[in-house]
Amino acid sequence: MFAMVRGAALALIVLTIIFVVVRIYARSVRREALEKEWDAAYLADENPEARADYIDRGMATYERSLARRLVWLVYVIPLGLAALTAFAVNHQWN
Predict the structure, then answer these.
(1) Cα separation of 14 and 8, whole Å?
(2) What is the predicted pLDDT for the residue at 26?
(3) How does pLDDT run across 38-84, given as a tens digit for each residue?
(4) How would you write the chain as a 3-class SS string?
């Protein structure tokens, strides 16, 4: 029993590290895309405040998007597969 708890704790720690890294990466990719969109559309505009506002609005939109919520699948898929495996192994097929 203790080994199972220790394994579950280790799995949650590893998944949390992966989640944080994926979330930071996804945010940086979105931010870079917004910066490239601004540079392509408003090349003549040298107003750094307008650029920062555009990027901030885009990131606020990203925070409410489905793409950000899909990062939670880092937890859902492995834990779901582990639960399904445990159920299949322990279930009596009478």
Answers:
(1) 10
(2) 96
(3) 988 877 677 888 889 999 999 999 999 999 999 999 999 999 999 99
(4) CHHHHHHHHHHHHHHHHHHHHHHHHHHHHHHHHHHHHHHHHCCCCCCHHHHHHHHHHHHHHHHCCHHHHHHHHHHHHHHHHHHHHHHHHHCCCC
Q: Residue 94 — pLDDT band, cuts 50, 70, 90?
A: low
Q: Which residue has the tokens 């990466």?
A: 25
24: which residues sit within 8 A by CB, 6+ positions away? none
Looking at residue 16, its pLDDT comes to 97
Mention every residue, 6+ apart, whose C-beta is less than 8 A from residue 45. 51
